[in-house]
Write a structure and sequence with these properties.
Layout lengths: L2 H38 L8 H29 L1 H21 L3 H28 L6 H30 L2 H7 L6 H7 L4 H6 L3 H11 L3 H13 L9 H5 L5 H31 L4 H29 L1 H19 L5 H29 L5 H28 L4 H21 L14
Membrane topology: Multi-pass membrane protein
GO molecular function: carboxylic acid transmembrane transporter activity
Protein name: MFS transporter
Length: 437
């Protein structure tokens, strides 16, 4: 194997480890929605739709805390260290979920689990982009973020196989097994070269760049560009750089985009099985809808990334968001089987698929010295929509307006997301990036 092939293999290993990390987020997204019918029937708990929505929102509040804190923290202590800490935190939280003896204990465990999840996503996305060739950055980001949907597929399959016979606790216990990927991360997951340069560890960064085929001169130039943009504060980075006049308007627009789509994603994933059951489908079929939705998400993520590297993220996300809104309108009409499956597939493509693509959009828009901060803050603020999503679903169900109104409600923010993306300027302010490999 020549040196170029070895470097490509090492970069892809980084993407694989990021993929495995983000899988935990996808698993956690689906596990709660899949277990809601069983939680409602748990003896002695007395949960109703309002309680289920509240616990779902606690989880997402924890995730928002983790995202907002972890993005800037990753720019301070490094991506690698924070990813490993987040995986450990999530695994412990999942174990406590499996052992919970009351709705309150379960909700607290879900909140803690969300904090751990928030710690892994910004750093994983940032590393995927930083170790990618410049003409494949969206693709590398998408490959890593496919773990989001892959985790959902794993959870949906496990729920179909085990939920009826073994109950809901086993699904959370299996989530705790993610701790087993930590040894691989310890030995094979590298730190960001840009972070090392920023911290004065230049020789270590140079060796890392040589091993992975990163253009080290470009890494140095990117750091110099960030510092020269603020001569009065030559070491400005992270949160301060992200909130500077040249970047903060974009951060706010990205946060609003994330708000709209997280409201849709989490609202649907918590309530879709129950909505389908109310529409007359059995539990097994309802779980199959979650599975089809995840396949749509994977397709949207990979195909969308391929298009984004050629056309730009903005030109891909706008039609994808509109596909989501249209698909939800189709689902509201109780269509025939073929249209039903196409609607579920399109909802996954345009909601989860678009949501994961937005991470790559943010990562490639901002410079490395504030990349994790931008991802964490934009997606963290966007998680307010994720907190409201399950609550909105419970309000509509509690109002007894009929399941179709839930689909109407979630179609609106999908269309609004397309409008917001249209307001983001076509290109980011001038900066340098890694050269093609």
């Amino acid at each position: 194997m020549n040196d170029s092939s070895a470097q490509t293999g090492r970069r892809l290993l980084v993407v694989l480890l990021c993929f495995m990390t983000i899988t935990v987020d996808g698993y956690d997204l689906i596990v709660y929605g899949a277990t809601v019918p069983r939680l409602l029937a748990e003896p002695g708990w007395g949960l109703d739709a309002t309680g289920v929505g509240m616990i779902g929102s606690w989880t997402l509040a924890g995730l928002m805390v983790g995202l907002v804190g972890a993005g800037p923290l990753a720019d301070r202590i490094g991506r690698r260290r924070l990813i490993m800490l987040g995986v450990l935190w999530f695994s412990v939280g999942a174990l406590f979920c499996a052992l919970a003896h009351s709705p309150f204990a379960f909700g607290v465990a879900r909140f803690a689990t969300g904090i751990g999840l928030g710690g892994v996503v910004p750093s994983s996305v940032a590393l995927s982009v930083e170790y990618a060739p410049s003409n494949r950055r969206q693709l590398y980001s998408a490959l890593g973020l496919t773990g989001y949907a892959f985790g959902g597929v794993i959870c949906a399959l496990l729920a179909i196989a085990l939920l009826e016979s073994h109950g809901w606790r086993i699904l959370y216990a299996m989530g705790a097994l993610y701790v087993l990927i930590l040894p691989a991360m310890y030995f094979f997951l590298p730190e960001s070269a840009s972070y090392l340069v920023d911290r004065g560890r230049t020789d270590e960064a140079r060796a890392l760049a040589s091993r992975y085929g990163i253009d080290f001169d470009q890494v140095l130039q990117e750091q110099q560009h960030a510092h020269h943009s603020h001569p009065a504060a030559p070491r400005v980075r992270g949160l301060r750089l992200m909130m500077s006049p040249e970047w903060r308007a974009a951060v706010l627009l990205f946060a609003l985009m994330a708000f709209c789509m997280q409201l849709v994603v989490y609202g649907l994933n918590v309530w879709l099985p129950l909505l389908m059951r109310k529409s007359g489908y059995p539990l097994g079929s309802s779980l199959q809808f979650l599975l089809v939705m995840q396949f749509g998400a994977v397709s949207g993520n990979l195909f969308g990334a391929w298009l984004a590297d050629r056309m730009g993220s903005k030109k891909v996300l706008i039609p994808f968001f509109l596909v989501c809104g249209l698909s939800l309108l189709v689902l509201s009409q109780k269509p025939g089987y073929v249209w039903l499956m196409l609607g579920v597939f399109g909802a996954g493509l345009g909601s989860i698929g678009s949501s994961t693509l937005s991470y790559g959009y943010i990562a490639t828009y901002f410079p490395a010295s504030c990349r994790a901060s931008a991802i964490g803050i934009a997606q963290g603020l966007g998680r307010i929509g994720a907190i409201l999503g399950p609550m909105v679903g419970s309000w509509v169900i509690g109002a007894k307006l009929g399941p179709q109104w839930n689909f109407y409600t979630f179609a609106v923010p999908a269309v609004l997301a397309a409008v917001v993306v249209a307001q983001i300027r076509e290109t980011a302010p001038p900066r340098v990036s890694y050269a093609d490999a």
